[in-house]
Write the C-alpha cells for this entry.
Amino acid sequence: MTHEHAHNPIGSGEHEGRFMHEGDPAYVDRDIFGNAPKHHRDWSHRRGEPRVFALIWMLYLMGAMLVMFMQLNRSHTISYEIVRPAARVMLLIVVIGFSVLWPMLRLSQHHPRRGHVWFALRDAIVLFVPLQAILWPLATGVLTHWPVPVVAAMSLLCGSWMLLIAGVLALAMRSIAYNDTPTMRCIWMGLIILVVVGAPMIGATGTPMPPAPVNQPRVGWLLSPITGVLEILRDREAIGVSGAVFTQQIRMMIAIGCVGLALLLIARGLEVAHARVRA
C-alpha cells in the first residue's frame, strides 16, 4: 500500500519549512511507511492498485448489509413486507457508493500517467464482482423472494452504470494528467454528480406527472442509478407478482452500458494517439 500523494518535508538548509514535489531534483517518493521504492524511480507503478480499494469496497458492502439487518432487528416478526424495504435501502447505499464515492475517492488521488482506461475498468470489475454476493441471495425465499429476472436486472443496472462512470472517470484522469489542479478535479466530480442525479433533478423541477401504473415501466427512472433501484425493485404486488422486468427497461440499461463503452473507447483512442505522437 502506498501513499497516494507523497511529499517529503525537508528539515534543514534552504528547503527548510517547505515540501518537496516531483519536480524537485532531490525529491524522493515514499510510501506511507516512509520507504523509498527499490528498482523504480517512484511509486507510480503501485499507485491505485486494487488491493486496498477492494478491501475498502468489501467493508462498505458489509456496512450496507449491516444497515439492512439493523432495520430487521427492530421488527418482532420477519416478512417480505419488512425485508424488501430494508433491502432497497441497502442497495441504495451500495449504488451511492459506486456512483458517487468511487469517483470521489479516485479524483482525490494521484493516478498513473498512462493506462487510465484499464485503471477505470479494473476498478469497475473490483466493484461489480463482490456486489454479486449480496445481490443474488435476495432471490431466495429466506430474504426478499424477488424473481431471478428482477435480481438479474438489478445486476445489469449496476454493471451498466459502472461502465458509464468508468468511461467518464477514464476521461477525467486523462484530463487531470495534463492539468492537475483542484479546480479541474472539482469540475470532473461535479460532472459525474450531474450525470448521476441530473435526470431526477430535472424531473423534480418539471410539471408533476401522474404516477405510472405498476404494470408499466418508468423508463426515465433508469437515467439515474439511484432512482433506477426504486424502479427495478418497485413493488408490483397489485398485479400479482413481487417484481417484474420489462423489455424497455432492459433496452435502456443496455444503452447506458453502450454509452459507457463508447466513452472508454474514446479515452483509449486518445491514449493511443498521444502515445504515437510522443513516439
Q: What stands out?
A: Confidence is low (pLDDT under 50) at residues 1-23. DSSP finds seven helices and two strands in the chain. The longest helix spans residues 247-278. The helical segments are 50-73, 80-106, 116-135, 148-178, 182-205, 225-232, 247-278.
